[in-house]
Amino acid sequence: MKYFFRFSVLTILMTYLLIFVGGLVRVSDAGMGCPDWPKCFDRWIPPTSLDQVPLEFQDQFNVVLAWIEYCNRLFGAVTGLMITITCYLAIRCYRKEIKIMVPVIGAFILTIIEGWLGGVLVDTVLNPFTITLHLLLALLIVVLLIYASLQSYYLYHKSAEVESDYPNSLKWFIYATGLIVLIEIIIGTEIRGGLEMIRNQNPLVNSIFLLRMLGPFKYMHTILGIFLVGLAYFIRKILIIESLNPSRLIIGSAQAMLGMIIVQIILGESLVFFDVKPLIQLFHMWFASLILGLCVIQYTAWEMSRLN
Amino acid sequence: MKKIHTVYIAGLFILILGIGATWVINKADQAHQTPPPIIKSVPDFQFKTHDGYTFTMENFRNKITVLDFMFTSCTGPCPIMASNMSRLYEQYRSIPDVQFVSVTVDPDTDTEDVLAAYADANGVNDDRWIFIRSDIKSVKELTRDGFMLFSDDLPAGHSVKFVLIDDKGRIRQYYDGTDKASIAILQAHLNLFLKNLDS
User: How many domains does one find in chain B?
Assistant: First the structure.
């Protein structure tokens, strides 16, 4: 049964890596590297030279972009397979544990939808709404997997949160943080989508000027970010001052969260004041997804302490 | 001690991801910055525009051109092509260095007046989108010899390609005028040429 926990942790790491690779495809503008789906230029392994490309696709062929997108699809396929195995292990080991079964089956169903959505993305030539939905589904999958994985951990480490006692207010701080992080991710994708739209209409203008052309909602992103620092600070304070025997997991996740949100503000501001560098953009999105994961860890730990 | 180890491992992992991502982004950037190759120069020709001016190979100079072959009474792929061309015309409205040229393959029907009305119906209100015509023999010659496209069964059998022509009148790439993905690539190439034109 320990296999489930170990394998689910591996699946979570792989899913996060896939979110990173997906973001990499986005920032390197390789989303249409393969113009068809699920095949790439009508082949299961992408072509390496123009003479292997069917005539109708020749204008769209770029070997580098095709292989970047193909790697994303390969990663997606492997991760999908791992989530399927996680689901199979859960059915074998924890058929009666609702808190494991429901999220794992949910993650499995969402994975199928996510794969299908990947095809829709190609069909709609990277429709901005579909891109956001694609990211949100990936986040939901990883959130469900983390929750299920921790539940299985607590089944075998019942004493993990036995001596811990957290105030009720902690729950609301965690809820608020999770919700605001999600809103921030959505606003972030909107900023990126808006930036791309303006860039299409003004191909000769630098990104730094394009950012200025975006509406005032970009300030909202910064303001909420600063608000998140406050929330993360209070969570840490509640855990250290007002809680009894907080577990190492919850303290560690609170500290990591505070540190990462501060790093996020620095990354976000450097995007505004210097230039929209793809690498910074990529890590900015990825760290946000990690922070969401930390929220789930904290919530699950808090929930366990209540049960005890 | 264990905590410090975790931080180090996480930092190392992020560093490796960062190095890998930088490599991929640079490779992709190089790929995006590579312009399509020169296919051939457009031969000299003389057509008339929908507003009565002469249009020759010289009109391609110092501009980036997107050219297609169409006819106004076409009910097949032409409406999709016209709609895609119209969208591009709108998107590049602030950039006079980009022009759109539509060559009619049915000059008997598409007189200057018919072309002018068609231009009007497609929202053309400046000289960035030009409709040109000549006699059918010249059209066939330009299609076949100038642009290496089908010309046997005109007007119905005309090509649906959008042709990208650089500022020196050279054909750089063909795109499917009915396919959004292909047009997205056309836009990327167009922007690349514009940046080079600008610098």
Answer: 2
Closest approach of A254 to chain B, Cα-based (Å): 14
**What single-letter amino acid sits at A208?**
I
Same-domain status, B71 and B30? no
CB atoms near residue A133 (< 10 Å): 17
Relative orientation angle of helices A98-123 and A128-156, to the nearest 10 degrees: 160
The predicted pLDDT at position A198 comes to 80
Could you tell me the residue range of the domain that residue B24 belongs to? 1-34
What is the pLDDT, as a whole number, of residue A81? Answer: 98
- For residues B74 and A201, give the distance between their C-alpha atoms in angstroms, rounded to a whole number: 30
Are B1 and B64 in the same domain?
no
Indicate if B70 and B148 belong to the same structural domain.
yes
Nearest to A282 among B21, B180, B186 (CB): B21
| Phi, psi (deg, nearest 5) at residue A149 | -60, -45
Predicted-complex ipTM score: 0.90
Q: How far is Cα B102 from Cα B92, in angstroms, rounded to an integer? A: 16
CA distance B134 to chain A (A): 29
Residue B191 and residue B166 share a domain: yes
**What single-letter DSSP state applies at residue B125?**
-
Q: Are residue B103 and residue B188 in the same domain, yes or no? A: yes
- One domain, residues B10 and B96: no
Residues of chain A with pLDDT under 50: none
Residues of chain B positioned with their CB less than 8 A from the CB of A122: 181
> Are the beta carbons of A282 and B31 separated by less than 8 Å?
no
Amino acid at A115: G
Q: What is the mean pLDDT of each run of 10 residues along chain B (199 residues)?
A: 78 95 95 90 91 92 94 87 93 91 93 93 91 92 88 79 94 92 90 80
Chain B CB contacts of A48 under 8 Å are none
pLDDT given for residue A108 in this prediction: 97
Looking at beta carbons, which residues of chain B come within 8 Å of A65? 28, 31-32
> Do A283 and B175 lie within an 8 Å CB cutoff?
no
Minimal CA separation from A97 to chain B, in Å = 31
Alpha carbon A264 to its chain's center: 14
Same domain, B49 and B10: no
Residues B8, B90 within the same domain: no
pTM tops 0.90, yes or no: no
